[in-house]
């Protein structure tokens, strides 16, 4: 026998529709919350992994000298310095025999930092490994595990703002849903479209348009504020990536592009037939730089290197590119070269730039000259041959100068 419902027990269509509307709103807002949460965490994962890789590349250059000279103390100090800045949680340096050379680990506070460690572990489940290269040979490797104390704070803040917005919007929607069902659906559709666009296309510049309903207008403003934070965080991470890339590709003392940047430029040049036909390479090596260091100290030597870089930049302008390869060795890539005679004139003009004594910044000045060798890119098919020819010509010039002084 079927059970009968009394009139008082039987739900009305209006009440049923209200329940459907309330359920729909709760489900939709929950989906929005989940999508934005996933978008923020996935975005952090991508940029955070890139930051860790660039940090490893930068650290490999910093630790190179310590590995070359077997200075475990210097390596440990370098790891500790960068580690205390929040660059990574753990770092292990291995020599070319795969033996542990130096290590550093962040000592976390289990009571206050447990969430940050959990998030960092999820974001970077696999530590990154970077080789340490010296003179084209792998002399060791660095293994880094990530830590970012800002990640936990950002996620808590983002989830808190998002949850508050969702709760407020849901409450407002439940109150007005009986009168504005269609408007509510349309408003949620706009928000869902924006969230979907952000998640699918990474379009963090997308914003929810203004709503006719006041409650949803406020929600749209809060929603857009959260998107503003996410967009700003994305720009901040991108800027940090760019800074790490610049640090990895530039000499910290002189500001000139370093050896890694030089290899990138020379590879691109040799693979471009048009640029290769009108370019040349200059190799420069300081004369008696060790005497300056021994006489005036390393600080004076640093001033000499900085002044040398300035003179090279002034000489090259925007057309020619100068690089510091290491120590007192520099390189200049000449472009728009017509013939070898023009390169020889360039070498003479550049050598004259160093006829003025160098200021030691200690009340004294000392002469500092450079030996210059060149090679025409059009005459070589390989980078190794080009570099070898320029280096050979540079040492021929240095030997001639030595015999002249004797």
From TrEMBL:
GO terms for molecular function: diguanylate cyclase activity. Residues 277-406 form the GGDEF domain. GO terms for cellular component: membrane. Pfam families: CHASE8, GGDEF. One of its GO terms (biological process) is signal transduction. Residues 182-235 form the HAMP domain. The keyword Iron-sulfur does not apply. InterPro entries: CHASE8, DGC-Regulatory_Protein, GGDEF_dom, HAMP_dom, Nucleotide_cyclase, Rev_trsase/Diguanyl_cyclase. The chain crosses the membrane at residues 20-44, 154-176. It comes from the Bacteria. Its EC number is 2.7.7.65. Keywords: Membrane, Nucleotidyltransferase, Transferase, Transmembrane, Transmembrane helix. This is Diguanylate cyclase DgcN. It comes from Scandinavium lactucae. The lineage of its organism: Bacteria, Pseudomonadati, Pseudomonadota, Gammaproteobacteria, Enterobacterales.
């Amino acid at each position: 026998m079927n059970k009968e419902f009394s009139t008082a027990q039987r739900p009305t269509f209006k009440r049923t529709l209200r329940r459907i509307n309330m359920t729909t709103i709760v489900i939709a807002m929950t989906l929005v919350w989940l999508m934005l949460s996933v978008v923020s965490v996935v975005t952090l994962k991508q940029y955070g992994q890139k930051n860790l890789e660039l940090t490893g590349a930068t650290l490999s250059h910093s630790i190179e000298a310590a590995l070359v000279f077997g200075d475990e103390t210097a390596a440990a100090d370098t790891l500790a310095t960068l580690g205390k800045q929040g660059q990574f949680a753990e770092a292990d340096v291995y020599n070319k025999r795969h033996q542990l050379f130096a290590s550093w680990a962040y000592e976390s506070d289990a009571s206050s930092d447990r969430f940050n460690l959990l998030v960092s572990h999820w974001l970077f489940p696999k530590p990154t490994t970077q080789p340490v290269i010296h003179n084209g040979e792998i002399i060791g490797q660095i293994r880094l595990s990530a830590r970012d104390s800002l990640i936990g704070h950002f996620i808590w803040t983002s989830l808190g703002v998002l949850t508050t917005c969702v709760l407020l919007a849901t409450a407002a929607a439940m109150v007005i849903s009986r009168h504005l069902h269609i408007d509510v659906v349309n408003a949620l559709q706009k928000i869902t479209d924006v969230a979907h666009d952000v998640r699918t296309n990474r379009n963090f510049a997308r914003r929810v348009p203004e709503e006719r309903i006041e409650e949803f207008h406020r929600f749209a403003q809060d929603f857009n504020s959260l998107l503003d934070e996410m967009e700003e965080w994305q720009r901040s991470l991108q800027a940090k990536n760019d800074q790490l890339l610049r640090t990895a590709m530039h000499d910290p003392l002189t500001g000139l592009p370093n050896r890694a940047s030089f290899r990138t430029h020379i590879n691109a040049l040799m693979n471009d037939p048009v640029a290769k036909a009108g370019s040349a390479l200059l190799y420069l090596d300081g004369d008696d730089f060790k005497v300056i260091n021994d006489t005036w100290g390393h600080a004076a030597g640093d001033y000499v290197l900085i002044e040398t870089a300035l003179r090279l930049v002034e000489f090259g302008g925007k057309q020619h590119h100068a690089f510091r390869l290491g120590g007192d060795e520099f390189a200049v890539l000449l472009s728009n070269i017509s013939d070898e005679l023009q390169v020889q004139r360039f070498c003479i003009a550049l050598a004259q730039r160093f006829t003025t004594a160098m200021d030691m910044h200690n009340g004294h000045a000392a002469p500092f000259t450079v030996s210059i060798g060149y090679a025409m890119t059009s005459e070589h098919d390989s980078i190794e041959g080009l570099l070898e020819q320029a280096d050979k010509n540079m040492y021929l010039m240095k030997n001639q100068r030595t015999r002249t002084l004797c």
